[in-house]
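chain below, 119 aa
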Amino acid sequence: MVHYDNRFWLLWIIGAIMAVSVCLCSSWSEDTLLLAVAFALSLIAIAIIRKFRYRTALCNIIFWLGYNSLLSYGLLFKSEGGAGLTWWFYLLCLNVLQFIIVAAYSIISIIRRNNQSAT
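prediction:
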């Protein structure tokens, strides 16, 4: 289990570095702050779910890295002509959506675990 846990944390750190890099390379504004918060919330939710469901967390971090890599590339290198707002919007929406889904799944897992331990 230790080997698998190291793989998760390596991917998580790569994701955190990518999120920080995207925020630092973008011009700093309230929009960038909003995106940074969305990145942080989704990464924190994925780290929390790892405690309950390792494979779910691993799948989520791989999925997170996939769509954020593509959309971040578009935001940083293909944002001419107003396309930057589209890339930013997709990044924000997908990160918030993943946060909501993972947070709800975490809460349901905690409730189920507490109900099973109570009986």
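Residues 30 and 113 are 39 Å apart (CA to CA). DSSP finds four helices and no strands in the chain.
thats it, cya
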